[in-house]
Design a protein that fits this description.
Number of strands of chain A: 13
Number of helices of chain B: 11
Shape of chain B: elongated
Family (chain B): Belongs to the EBP2 family.
Number of helices of chain A: 7
Subcellular location (chain B): Nucleus, Nucleolus
Keywords (chain B): Coiled coil, Nucleus, Ribosome biogenesis
Distance between the termini of chain A: 112 Å
Order of helices and strands of chain B: HHHHEHHHHHHH
InterPro entries (chain B): Ebp2
CATH class of the largest domain in chain A: Alpha Beta
Helix content of chain B: 55-70%
Structural class of chain B: mainly alpha
Largest interface: A-B, 100 and 86 residues
Main location (chain B): nucleus
Largest sheet of chain B: none
CATH architecture of the largest domain in chain A: 3-Layer(aba) Sandwich
Distance between the termini of chain B: 95 Å
Order of helices and strands of chain A: HEEHEHEHEEEEHEEHEEEH
CATH topology of the largest domain in chain A: Rossmann fold
Number of strands of chain B: 1
Strand content of chain B: under 5%
Oligomer: heterodimer
Strand content of chain A: 25-35%
Structural class of chain A: alpha+beta
Radius of gyration of chain A: 29 Å
Radius of gyration of chain B: 50 Å
CATH superfamily of the largest domain in chain A: Brix domain
Chain lengths: ~325, ~300
């Protein structure tokens, strides 16, 4: 389905005509589906069969930490509808280069892991070609390789997405929810996806951060393949990983740029934090010197009274 | 696949142990809170010039969002209500909140799939590539087993220690009791002696409760039941001696010889007394063999 979605109601409907379940099938030509019927379809758009053909480009900047790289690879293994690309020079990542890359790969959204100073990970989540895009600071990363996360699930099954209700609270959370749903949800009938559903994604806002968890659904089987209601209570979840926590910094109107729509008012960059810490440490010696001189000045300004009994024991 | 089957039980165990949050959750999140502390500084109050373009956001949302009438099966998403505000720094409650959210989501999904009559969990005969390799799962399993073993060992050690303590106590109690018993015995004997002394010995004799054999005076005399021809100290009562001299030819010749030797030199019992001569044995010439002489001659030739 070579056509790109252009994010408007009519275009979505236009997409529909390619669905094979549609009553009149378009003729197949060498170059794709013939668009002859487009006009008619738009007029009688009642049975709008929706089909998502989301493709996510996953890439990272150069000089990425191994831990963050593993996180990225984990995400790649979780998203069957993604394309992994080579590392991008982080200087180039500003704006157009990445957009071009996304377009080149015919993707509709992008996850870009940007590592700075080998320790801070920023995640760009963007809808291409015309926005919006979000920049997150990623905290508390645990990759899937950690042995404490004991779950496992099929590669390529469609995840069930759960969002906490506080995503509905503010417009920026709403926007993020929609983006996450589109990017992290595997499209129905994607050719790399498998049937069945055996894992759950958790997106939860706690303390103004989005927390991500991935759990395997495990059900004790009672012989039969069919799961019945009795098993519902016995259903348990085992964490598969990865874990991370996203702190939204900014939301831009375009993809990788454009007007700023939202700015996190509480955000302090890790650089600032480190600088602050350093400054606190640096002040130590200066403080000591200052205290010493102050004491001296104090002693000079109010000298001790001469001791009248000092002479007594001098004999 | 085996690993896969194992896990749920392990996890369940943990669930039982401390109500919903296994201890690996704690372990994992410990490091998390550490990293949080230095990374997660927030401004005390919101900065005033932060941009918040409500309309722009909603506009964009309208742009990108899927049409309203999209079926749920395309989204597979749920909104789960969080009951109360979760404290971020309390790792246990936070993880528990995530877990319950996920569990609630799966329950709803399960019901929905059932009502739509679509497959939900994979069938047991559906095998495909997993997210984590078998190699990795082997490692995970090894770790779990090691953990279990460690816990068991610790438990055993603790038990041994406790039992040792108890055993010590019991032993000391026993010793005390024994000492007490001994003391009592001695005391009772003393008491009895005193009583006896007070009442005089004569009366006691008539009652005659102690008529020990050695009180008769003839205590250590040898019994005179000596049989003739039996060496003193021969416990067989002279039976061993019977037929000592007779030699039979054939198969049991050797045995006889052995017997006679044994009767002469003894097998068992005290040797010293047996080898002594008595008047009878000196007179008894059965043991001497005249043929010996000829035998020597033969050898000389």
């Amino acid at each position: 389905m070579g056509k790109k979605r252009k994010h408007s109601e009519t275009e979505v409907v236009a997409n529909v005509k390619k669905d094979e379940s549609a009553p009149e099938r378009a003729k197949r030509t060498l170059l794709g589906w013939k668009d002859k019927t487009e006009g008619e379809k738009e007029s009688n758009d009642s049975p709008a069969v929706f089909r998502s053909n989301e493709k996510v480009l996953v890439t990272c900047s150069r000089r990425i930490n191994f831990r963050y790289r593993h996180l990225m690879l984990n995400l790649v293994s979780l998203l069957p509808h993604c394309k992994k690309d080579n590392k991008v020079e982080s200087k180039q990542s500003k704006g157009s280069t990445l957009n071009e890359l996304v377009e080149l790969k015919s993707c509709s959204s992008c996850l870009f892991f940007e590592c700075r100073k080998g320790k801070d990970l920023y995640l760009w989540m963007s809808k291409c070609p015309n926005g919006p895009s979000v920049k997150f600071l990623v905290n508390a990363v645990h990759t899937m390789e950690e042995l404490k996360l004991t779950g496992n699930h099929l590669k390529g099954t469609r995840p069930i997405l759960t969002f906490s209700t506080n995503f509905e609270k503010d417009p920026h959370w709403k926007l993020l929810k929609e983006m996450i749903m589109q990017i992290f949800g595997t499209p129905k009938d994607h050719r790399k996806s498998k049937p069945y559903h055996d894992h759950v994604f958790v997106f939860s806002i706690v303390d103004d951060h989005i927390w991500f968890r991935n759990y395997q659904i495990s059900c004790p089987r009672t012989g039969a393949n069919k799961v019945d209601r009795g098993d519902l209570d016995k259903m348990t979840l085992v964490e598969v990983g990865p874990r991370f926590c996203l702190n939204p910094i900014k939301i831009f109107g375009g993809s990788f740029g454009g007007p700023t729509l939202y700015e996190n008012p509480f955000y302090v960059s890790p650089n600032q934090i480190r600088a602050l810490e350093k400054r606190q440490k640096a002040g130590k010696f200066a403080k000591k010197v200052k205290a010493k001189t102050r004491r001296k000045m104090h002693e000079l300004s109010n000298p001790l009274e001469p001791d009248e009994f000092a002479e007594i024991w001098k004999e | 696949m085996e690993v896969l089957k194992k896990k749920p039980t392990v996890f369940e165990d943990e669930m039982v142990k401390d109500a919903g949050t296994g201890d690996f959750d704690v372990e994992v999140s410990e490091s998390e809170s550490d990293s949080q502390e230095d990374e997660d500084v927030k401004l005390a109050e919101p900065s005033k010039n932060a941009i918040y373009n409500r309309d722009g956001l909603l506009d964009k949302l309208g742009d990108i969002s899927w049409p309203k009438n999209v079926e749920w099966i395309h989204k597979l998403s749920f909104d789960i209500d969080q009951e109360q505000e979760v404290d971020v720094n309390d790792d246990l409650t936070r993880e528990l909140a995530f877990y319950t959210q996920a569990l609630e989501g799966t329950r709803q999904a399960f019901l929905k799939f059932q009502s739509m009559e679509l497959p939900f969990l994979r069938t047991s005969d559906f095998y495909a590539e997993m997210v984590k390799s078998d190699n990795h799962m082997e490692k995970v399993k090894g770790r779990l087993l090691a953990e279990k073993r460690r816990i068991e060992e610790a438990e055993e050690r603790r038990k041994a220690r406790e039992s040792k303590k108890i055993a010590k106590e019991i032993q000391s109690q026993k010793l005390k009791e024994r000492a007490k018993q001994k003391k009592e015995g001695i005391e009772s004997v003393k008491k009895w002696r005193k009583q006896r002394q007070q009442s005089g010995f004569a009366g006691m004799d008539k009652e005659g409760d102690i008529n020990l054999p050695f009180e008769d005076g003839k205590a250590f005399e040898r019994s005179n039941k000596r049989r003739p021809g039996v060496a003193p100290g021969d416990r067989s009562g002279g039976k061993a001696r019977q037929g000592g001299g007779k030699m039979k030819k054939g198969f049991d010749k050797k045995r006889k010889g052995k017997e006679s030797k044994e009767s002469k030199f003894g097998f068992g019992g005290r040797k010293g007394l047996k080898k002594q001569n008595t008047a009878e044995t000196t007179n008894d010439l059965r043991g001497f063999n005249n043929n010996d002489f000829s035998g020597k001659k033969k050898r000389k030739r």
